[in-house]
Amino acid sequence: MNRNTAVLNIVKGDDMATTKAFQSILSVDNLGITYPGGIEALRSTSISFQRGEFNVLLGLSGAGKSSLLRALNHLVKPTSGKVTSAEFGVLNNQRTLRRHRRKTAMVFQHHQLILRHTALQNVLMGRLGYHSFWRSLLPMPRADLELALHCLDRVGLADKALSRIDQLSGGQQQRVGIARALAQQPDIILADEPVASLDPATSEKVLTLLKKICAEDGITAVVSLHQLEYARHFADRIIGLANAEVVFDASPTQLDDTQLALIYKQAPTDLKKTSKTKPAEDSATNRLPSKTATQLEIA
Ligand SMILES: Nc1ncnc2c1ncn2[C@@H]1O[C@H](COP(=O)(O)OP(=O)(O)OP(=O)(O)O)[C@@H](O)[C@H]1O
Questions:
Q1: Distance separating the N- and C-terminal Cα atoms of the chain
Q2: Rounded to whole angstroms, how far apart are CA atoms 174 and 106?
Q3: Residue 95 CB: number of other CB atoms within 10 A?
Q4: Ligand 1, atom 26: nearest CA belongs to which residue?
Q5: What is residue 252's predicted lDDT score, i.e. its pLDDT?
């Protein structure tokens, strides 16, 4: 069943709780992204993201995941089509964009933290969007400090508040990245390959934390991943991209070998041979097994 049909059917059922669960928070309409030089990263794509949903973007390298994700707050400018925030409207002017960005936090693969600053100072950066340029030159208000400490506590790093980022492990750094996103008090978190630099055990911990926090705070997440097993495990909804187009958009339970073949452009029989092993099973080396579906995406 097409996802939109499924949503409509439920909404028609007049179940108010379910209707609320499917409230759109952000949508893209006929979105196209073409980079200078004519590389088409996204072709006329329309998607509606629902409040509180944990969305995972899957696809081969170059499929268009980062471009779509970054277009959601205009870090990449769409060439055609539009992005609409349910709260602030179409992102077609600076004022709307600023308001939308303030409530849309980003988590990056390489954290984008300032290494020689403390964890607390980095988390406080999440508050900058709430202050004027001039105000941000002064020490941050006490309420912001308390909020930043609370965010560090939620990611289990209260005791590292005064540690420099370059004294933390990769997993701890990413948790600081999540705390900084939280300090923004966002409605939406965009996470671009947030666990690509982490080992499997740490990746699972970071994704578990991100999912838990989003569920607790009703945050909508759009997360690009290269690991199929994590997508299956954590996503409420998987959006599969191939060749700059959405080729799959449904719950993980509907992602069968035929659909995977569309995303990874392989024959379903080839996928069967390689899609069974789970990433955590190769615990001896703490690396992904050499022939798992998780690596189909990386190929
Ligand atoms: N700044 C850019 N300038 C020109 N072309 C770009 C730029 N960024 C991305 N592209 C191209 O756009 C296409 C989509 O790239 P994108 O980074 O969105 O894919 P992706 O699915 O996120 O890939 P990956 O998983 O490797 O990050 C690719 O062909 C890529 O080379």
A1: 30
A2: 12
A3: 9
A4: 61
A5: 97
Beta bridge partners of 238: 56, 250
- Ligand 1: residues with CB < 6 A are 35, 39, 41, 59, 61-67
Q: Which atom of ligand 1 is nearest to the CA of 42?
A: 14
List, as own/partner pairs, every contact residues 273-279 make where C-beta atoms lie below 8 angstroms and the sequence separation is at least 24, other chains included. Answer: 275/228, 278/229, 279/200, 279/227, 279/229, 279/230
Q: CA-CA distance, 181 to 186, in Å (whole number)? A: 7
Instruction: For the chain, give every domain's residue range.
Output: 22-103+187-199+215-299, 108-185
More confident residue, 30 or 3: 30
**Whole-number Å distance between alpha carbons of 263 and 240:** 6
Mean residue pLDDT across the chain: 84
> Cα torsion for 284, 285, 291, 292, to the nearest 10°?
80
For residue 57, give the H/E element and its range. strand 54-59
Please give the backbone phi and psi of residue 108, each rounded to the nearest 5 degrees, phi first.
-110, 160
ipTM over 0.90: yes
Give yes or no for residue 195 having a pLDDT over 50: yes
The CATH superfamily assigned to 22-103+187-199+215-299 is: P-loop containing nucleotide triphosphate hydrolases (3.40.50.300)
State the Cα–Cα distance between residues 293 and 272, nearest whole angstrom.
9
The first and second tokens of residue 62, run together, are: 């170059």
Distance 228 CA to ligand 1 centre (A): 19
The best mutation among 31, 34, 39, 247 to test binding of ligand 1, ranked by most ligand atoms within 8 Å of the C-beta, falls on 39
Q: What is the pTM of this model?
A: 0.83
- The preferred substitution site among 45, 67, 243 for testing ligand 1, maximizing ligand atoms within 8 Å of CB, is 67
